[in-house]
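Record 1 of the preview.
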Amino acid sequence: MDKSFLSPAEIAESFIEMGRYKAGLPAWKQFVLGIMGGAFIGLAAQGSNVAIHTVSSVGVAKLLSGAIFSTGLMMVVIAGAELFTGNCLMVLSCADRKSGWTAMLRNWFFVYLGNFAGAMIVVLLVHYSGQLNYSAGLLGGFTIKVAAGKTGMSFVNAFCLGILCNWLVCIAIWMSTAARDIAGKVLAIFFPIWLFVTSGFEHSIANMYYIPAGILAKSDPMWVKQALSLGLTQGGIDALSWGTFITKNLIPVTLGNIVGGAGFVGMAYWLIYLHRQRNAEGEAAK
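->
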């Protein structure tokens, strides 16, 4: 009987082959596809900031931001790109011994670098386009404020928010894999991503746009003035740097993303749908 979507067990099986394919890609393809993925997420982050920089209600702003940001993952999944956070699901293929752990880590490394490069391309283009001058420089000030907020968290806070984020991002990818048409994939992606952004969870690749954009925006006195008008202190602005970006956000959020995606989604569903089946197949073969 023809079905309009895959069952959870069928999704799990599809990720075995998907992980093997991703692990076997040449490093240069992983890197270039990573650039595309980082750029798509960077564009979604940029669009989210534009949409909400004049919205005073935090809840409404996050609600609107989430609706726009979901476009980024849609472009990754449908147009074709590699995203580090989604590739945490490659653990299914490794756990099933269809690809090696070293090959997975190699993929993560090159895709992560590509994601950073893609996000930085968007950062630089937005910065030098003059777009941050919107609303008399308020968008530039808001960009600084967002970045400072993300680098002002404790390690534990950032780590936990990273877990919660990629739990939902990987569920979005998992659900989109069930869909057999583009409309189904769009709907499957939209709601979990909307939920993660509205909740204020932390995505390492999105932060490769949000925080560097804020760091560069500090170079413009007008944007700094607008950041201060939004309630950010001078101390908060001074603390925003490449060092705090890496140590106070990127490292803990990345580690949390791995736990949320690889652990709470990938390994959880491998244990539920594939582990016992593999054991039964092994016993039957004896």
